[in-house]
Amino acid sequence: MTDFNISAEVIAADNDTRAKALKSDYTALGEKLSRSNIDIETIVAKVAEFYVAVPSWGVGTGGTRFARFPGAGEPRHIFDKLDDCGVIQQLTRATPTVSLHIPWDKTDPKELKAKADSLGLGFDAMNSNTFSDAADQAHSYKYGSLSHVNTATRQQAIEHNIECIELGAALGSKALTVWVGDGSNFPGQSNFTRAFERYLASMAEIYKALPEDWRLFSEHKMYEPAFYSSVVQDWGTNYLIAQTLGPKAQCLVDLGHHAPNTNIEMIVARLIQFGKLGGFHFNDSKYGDDDLDAGSVEPYRLFLVFNELVDAEHRGVKGFHPAHMIDQSHNVTDPIESLMASANEIRRAYAQALLVDRAALEQYQNDNDALMATETLKRAYRTDVEPILAEARRRAGGAIDPVGAFRNSGYRQKVAALRPAVKGGSGGIV
Ligand SMILES: [Mn+2]
Predict the structure, then answer these.
(1) Is 430's pLDDT higher than 90?
(2) C-alpha of residue 220 to centroid of ligand 1, in Å
(3) How many angstroms does the Cα of residue 72 sit away from the middle of ligand 1?
């Protein structure tokens, strides 16, 4: 029995105030879509089955290199974090899994599993951390981890990743995401080739420890914390890693980890074509790894990424099942509200991509009709699919307006009274 933190009556009362308008909007949209031979019920059913994982580190307030300003009622530990993740799932019905970060969330797996079960939550990919030093570790990661020049440091990093796999296996997770901050700040500081050889050898050891039904995701990032060179800097290097390690290794695309103006949707298409798209860390950015809310800055880019995903789905690409995860840092908003809004934006991009007339698009492409080809995408993108998203939430027991219902529930005020303000600390942004 699921033990949600917000009473069903609160959601029902909030939905009651919005149900009439939704019904009217849903009917109007259904009629509009039917003129394009699209059945709105088919789209609602697909949207309802589209899920994205919430990062455990995302429910606390983040920070920048300069400061962190705590929010009210921040989670004190992983059990509080799971409570907050449960609220996000309760209201959106789009986020039934949580992605953990070790060692930040390290605790008895039985207790973790029992708490998650009580909230109706499962676990998505595990995330290791060799980009900062834990209090009790023997060797520092100041000069790298899996690619470190010292064997003992590399071994410690390998063992940490294997520990993450073991913990994840006890929780029902099926994947490990590895992101390292390894790199250099000065020309000459590091030998590019030797560092990458050491990284590959370390990853091969981790790969060997994977259970049969697990996947290993490597996440690239152009720069930060290393500012001259990063060992896993771009999708090309990431592809080489996945290709070298074997079939269980795939690439993870974090939308904020590329050079400005990079054509991310094209990278997605390439990785799909060669069977190496493992999944996503969704977020948005203006300049770099800003970790802003998904769809908040460049919603059209998010749509174009989903256009590639739906295209692959439409073509029936074999073994295509990318992991969908959010990776954001919330500095000026309530993290629960941001994560709910982000989950909805991700579903919105998916729903809009489902509306693309793929037969017409292909014909325009073959006819070299650039204008009509791009208009075909725009036509889907311009469609306001909010009634579809809201109806999917409502039918699943969620809120028509998650942020509105959340504010009316008083959850934040309730936990703020229980959880003392957390001072300082870093945001934990990867
Ligand atoms: Mn990430």
Answers:
(1) no
(2) 9
(3) 25
Q: Residue 256 Cα, ligand 1 centroid: separation in angstroms?
A: 8
Contact yes or no for 254/268 (Cβ under 8 A): no
Distance 12 CA to ligand 1 centre (A): 35
Residue 394: which residues within 8 A CB-CB, separation 6 or more? 15, 19, 22, 400
Give the pLDDT score at 4: 79
Distance 277 CA to ligand 1 centre (A): 15
Edge-first strand listing for the sheet containing 277-282: 126-127, 175-178, 215-219, 249-254, 277-282, 323-326
Alpha carbon 249 to its chain centroid, in Å, reads 18
385-399 pLDDT, tens per residue?
Answer: 999 999 999 999 999
Please give the distance, rounded to the nearest whole angstrom, from the Cα atom of residue 257 to the centre of ligand 1.
Answer: 8
Please say if the pLDDT value at position 9 is more than 60.
Answer: yes
Distance 4 CA to ligand 1 centre (A): 28
> What kind and span of H or E run contains 97?
strand 97-99
> What separation in Å is there between the alpha carbon of 405 and the centre of ligand 1?
29
Tell me the pLDDT tens digit for each residue of 126-172: 999 999 999 989 999 999 999 999 999 999 999 999 999 999 999 99
Q: How confident is the model at residue 97 (pLDDT cuts 50, 70, 90)?
A: very high
- For 193-205, what is each residue's pLDDT tens digit? 999 999 999 999 9
Write the DSSP string, 189-207.
SS-HHHHHHHHHHHHHHHH
pTM for the structure as a whole: 0.97
- The string of DSSP letters for 207-267 reads HHTS-TT-EEEEE--SSSS-SSEETT-SHHHHHHHHHHH-TTEEEEEETTSS-TT--HHHH
Give the integer Cα–Cα distance in Å for 128 and 102.
Answer: 5
221 CA from centroid of ligand 1 (Å)? 8
